[in-house]
Amino acid sequence: MKTGFRLAVVLRLREMAEDAARAKLGAAAADYRKATEIVAKLHAREDEARGRMLELQDGGGMAGDIVASVRGIEMAEQQTAIGRQALEIAARALVDARSALAEASRRREVVQRLRDRQRQAEVLEAQRHEDSVLSELAGVRHARGLGAEKDQ
Question: Which pTM value belongs to this model?
Answer without folding.
Answer: 0.71
